[in-house]
Amino acid sequence: MSVSYRSILWNKQKIRYDKGLVLFILIFLVAFFGIHLVFHSNVTIETIIIRAFGLLSLVLLHVILTIGPLTRINPRFLIVLYNRRHLGVTMFLMALIHGAFSMMNFHGLGDINPIRSIFLSNLQYQSVAHFPFQVLGFFALLILGLMAVTSHDFWLKNLGYKTWKALHMMVYIAYGLVILHVVMGVIQNETSIVLFAVILTAFFGIAMLHLLVAVRETTTDQQSKLNAEWVLVGAPEEIKESRAKIVAVSGERVAIFLYQGMLSAVNNVCRHQGGPLGEGKIIDGCITCPWHGYQYLPGNGQSPPPFTEKVETYDLKLENGQVWVNAQPHPEGTAVEPLKIS
Amino acid sequence: MEENDFYIGWQDQAGKTSKRRLLDFFLVSILLALLFLLLFSWVEGPFQKSTFEYGKLTEFSGEVIDYPVFAIKTSHKGEDRTIPLVGFGKFSANPVLRKLKERTGGKLSGFEIRLRGTLIYAHGQVWMELTEGEESVIAVAPKSTVDTLVLETSGSTIKLTGEIVDPKCFFGVMNPAVKKVHKSCAIRCISGGIPPILAIRDRDGEFQDFYFIRNKAGQYINDKILQYVGIPVSLNGEVEQVDGLKVIKIDPPSNQMVYRPLLDQGIAKCGT
């Protein structure tokens, strides 16, 4: 969080992360160029560039899509989630190089505009075997481009969290288009079934990870179907100091934090990017989101001044050694007396 | 997760456990990426040997012909050759041919032409891009002797199966320049006037025979065959050979839609 505006808030850890990303790209590209120059010396440099950057962006997209579910399954991966934005923009730039070179090579210097050529050269849209796969890549690149240019808190603030989130959920549409682009393009072109098997495995791997998380979270949310006025949280001992327990209440997830012998309940969704506050920690007296470090006071759900983010708060009660949360939330930022348990 | 190892994005330093986790994730990711790269490199290809002498201009002198293709009959590396000519980008060299005919009064035989361009070669074939357009014609001079074309015709209809390619990319400007990944590019080249060729593989899968595609009257039919480019096709037609350059003369399909359902069955039948 920062009061004064800076387009990118650099810090040592972020620089370390980005250095790692650059190293990843360099290792991949050097290996790709090296292998091709030695073992496929007949191939043209344009083909190497197109394939290297296409493959690299495909790999990076898979890495990006594993991070979200991995952090939901195991919070130890949260360190990888932070700065995923740079990873996404970098992946788009790699895909852009792939797309630009492909367009220049296959569609440039011809009798019609290269963009029109993508759509009008191969017209066999009705055929699976001969479908113009480059069209799929074009639309995927458009979506990824839209996401890349809005990957900044400026857009998050101006578009609003829900619109921004909906826009960035389009990564799954882009992913589907990319998979089809690859399967109907280079894989259909090659005679080996091995590549097809690898892509299929990667696709199902990503799908299974997301499915696993969905099942886990659906189980957590089962309680929300109960229409009781008060919902059981459990014994206070179940919650570690400065940490929270998440329960589902009337269709919402609520995070109940324990700190200094007191309990406070707030809505689980961070107003920044929808991060799970209940997986965060109380630091310096503030609930701290594990995703990007946005902070809220546990007693009123407000970000400490001068920040303005607010979340809903909930009443708690203690009965027979068990903590209960009221299903009715207070408006965002409403002060609620913490429940003293000792 | 260690209690004291809760990393917040804006902090300068992450804890040891978090750093270790990030490093592990990086190492596993790069390892998987390299494995994928190795696998991809192992199964892709093979790539044919071909050359495009980009940036290097070569000069030839000889007589120019315009059938079955705009070409120059010359000597290359001590061997008599008929080198077909194409234009810059995805275009034919027809504008150069028209300009040349203006200078020679419409005749091509009986003139010694000096041309400059960029060589393209593969599969034992040599082609040349007239990179500088009309400036590629360096000299035009009458000559005393007139070359005669050797024409052989089969006289009967035969069926040839192969892939329709654009020869400029196929013989070296791009590699690979066949099948689906190159289909759109080949369509643009052929649409731009580059003469389409039926490339035929031998039993080992190597391309070994090449036929220019014309209609029965010997005219270009580029626009009629665009959707058959880059896929296996069977062409029925008469075969002729002009100075070693092979031609298949077919009846182009008048309505390509009729043939489209056949495409998904692997072989498109054109000119049947």
Strand-residue proportion of chain B: 35-45%
Mean pLDDT of chain B: 88
Largest sheet of chain A: 5 strands, antiparallel
Spatial extent as radius of gyration of chain B: 26 Å
* Shape verdict of chain A: elongated
Blueprint (SSEs and pairs):
The complex is a heterodimer of chains A (342) and B (272).
Chain A: H1 12-39, H2 45-73, H3 78-81, H4 84-107, H5 114-120, H6 133-149, H7 153-159, H8 161-168, H9 171-189, H10 194-221, E1 230-234, E2 244-249, E3 252-259, E4 262-267, E5 281-283, E6 286-288, E7 295-296, E8 313-314, E9 316-319, E10 322-326, E11 339-340
Antiparallel strand pairs in A: 1-10, 2-3, 3-4, 4-8, 4-11, 5-6, 6-7, 9-10
Helix pairs in contact in A: 1-2, 2-4, 2-10, 4-5, 4-6, 6-9, 7-8, 9-10
Chain B: H1 16-43, E1 50-52, E2 58-65, E3 71-76, E4 79-86, H2 94-104, E5 111-122, E6 125-129, E7 137-142, E8 151-165, H3 167-173, H4 179-191, E9 197-201, E10 207-215, E11 232-242, E12 245-250, E13 268-270
Parallel strand pairs in B: 4-6, 10-12, 11-13
Antiparallel strand pairs in B: 1-5, 2-3, 2-5, 3-4, 5-6, 5-7, 8-9, 8-11, 9-10, 11-12
